[in-house]
């Protein structure tokens, strides 16, 4: 349990060190598409709206070209004498057509964007729901081997990237492809030669853009990596500030931050240079298409091969397709990253889950609290077995103390009783029923836990106490708090039971948090209790309070106490001495002390070291 400590120091690093290239793009695309296809009808509407909208948008230069030609012809035939009336006569139809096409195109573009945003949001919502549900179904060993930051970044950053590409990227891409295709078809129908020349000029600028964007990506990645390093270090120094001051390491820490900051400055400068100094050059290159159109179109128009209106239509088409080309290439870039993100999301969703409850579960209707471990064999990894053969029987209402050196397997023993991990051999019984035959929820309701690593969620004190019995009324909560000896301190707070707290906030001391978790266990009133005795973080007075509260919560229940101060467990019905995953001694305090035992050594050494056993 305490192994699941703060692992997210690396979060920032992870976010930047993530692989940006999916291992199996095809499979990821297929899976993503199959999820998107669950919204077939909406997708169909989006594609149709895009087609119509872009089609209308693409013909506008042609309409404008025709209008200009008609105007030139009118002026040539009638001079400027026709005045406003002539102008209206010539331009009325094309202007109305132009406006109609633009308005309709904007309307369809609104529809497509609106529906597509919904499609993206629905996709993300369903994935996020699946991921949250998954978290509750993952076995504990998943948490042991994965960093919190990694899981967090999958649920937030990765999903956001997928959403962004689905919502805006894909739409831009589809629009861009339609736009380019339709525009090129129209251009080809007007002048194949000029179209080919324009496309050749644009290809040169495309290659240059690609080269520059690669350089830009490299510079940005380098910048982000250093930034990640900086974040990671600052976070570490922030959380470890007490130790840093205690060991007079402020200067060393400042030097590290200064060195990384200087690297970050250099990396950022490079990234900014690429961004701001080279992009104008690219913009210049993209004008190549315009230059070719103006020169060749001008020559064609002068030679009578092309009307002025068509030249202007070409100029507009060049403009109309250069942006979509850039957008499409950006989309292809971001698609890579989004696919890598989607792959990480799917990987998480495919993680192996907790062994499900049996289909025909047994129930312990009136739990007595008899616990038996029968030849239990267990290892956190199958190839390194910690417990070879542990057997043990605990009678109802007995108090069992588990002692032993660090790493002996005390926590592991209670982890197994809670079925947080699956056994490699043997079985554990509660009142004669194998815990694997009980629904997990029933087992965990039967067993209460008060751990050293107290966990309080963001909420009021009352809500935190009622965590094990959500329907508890205020009076029950207060009774539990009184029994756990924390009612007094709660009442000294400004908002009493309605004070909002969390494990993160410093306003509640470690001892007080422990008292609250005892109150929580009191209220849930389980048949079995697991208590992990506080070691260091509690002052002597609070410790006495905690011990008294623990004694109360254990009353009339079978309890397992992981004990660190041997003086507190003298009254235990059974003391288990563990070493290297094995129970090496078993008996009462007196029995164990009478012999030449490891326990006696441990006990005497605590007395010798003073205080601890007092
Ligand atoms: N989640 C885990 N994954 C892998 N190994 C683990 C895990 N938890 C504990 N271990 C290993 O199993 C052994 C027993 O650990 P356990 O926490 O049960 O000891 P403990 O007696 O409770 O120690 P302490 O008094 O320090 O809390 C140790 O070698 C430990 O490194």
From TrEMBL:
SMART domains cross-referenced by the UniProt entry: AAA
SUPFAM superfamilies in UniProt: ABC transporter transmembrane region, P-loop containing nucleoside triphosphate hydrolases
Keywords from the UniProt entry: ATP-binding, Cell membrane, Membrane, Nucleotide-binding, Transmembrane, Transmembrane helix, Transport
Compartmental location: Cell membrane
Gene Ontology CC terms: plasma membrane
GO molecular function, one term: ATP hydrolysis activity
Topology relative to the membrane: Multi-pass membrane protein
Domain annotation ABC transmembrane type-1: ranges: 44-337
Pfam family, one: ABC_membrane
Domain ABC transporter: 371-605
InterPro entries: AAA+_ATPase, ABC1_TM_dom, ABC1_TM_sf, ABC_transporter-like_ATP-bd, ABC_transporter-like_CS, P-loop_NTPase, Type_1_exporter
Primary location: membrane
TM helices/strands, residue ranges: 41-64, 95-120, 171-188, 273-302
Protein name: ATP-binding cassette, subfamily B
Species annotation: Anaerocolumna jejuensis DSM 15929
